[in-house]
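Design review, sub-item: ligand-bound model
Attendees: FS, YL, KQ
YL presented the inputs for the iron/sulfur cluster complex:
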Amino acid sequence: MNHLEKFENYHKRKILRELKQAGILLTEINIPVIISETSFQIRSKKHSEQCPYYAQEKPCHDIKDLNCFLCVCPEYHSDMDEGGCRINNQSGKWHSPYPYSKSGKVWDCSDCSFPHFQAHIEQYLRQNLGELRRIQDEI
Ligand code: SF4
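KQ shared the predicted structure:
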């Protein structure tokens, strides 16, 4: 597992652990609750130590109802040494120099809001509930 995959794995497990501790099961009926619990508005209050943007009370992207569930975008090529975007979203860009990849560059998503929209989170949850529940059971 490379360092990009490790970060993705770490973030996913952290969010799933928090939901488990809050007693929120990963069921279809709970999707609105999961989305609410992982919103910037709620997480910045309950988990203020988890992100520098929470302390500033200023979301990383200027969009309405920003959600943090997919802080690590599922479309990110974390299995690649230098990352990349599976859907070629034009909001991303290459960043260099980057000391941790052989090419010296890394895919930078800091200007892309795609994974933070509630509609995308809802779709992702509907498609991946079984797998997420399996991971949550292991934690
Ligand atoms: S955040 Fe945007 S650019 Fe980055 S992987 Fe996701 S869709 Fe692609």
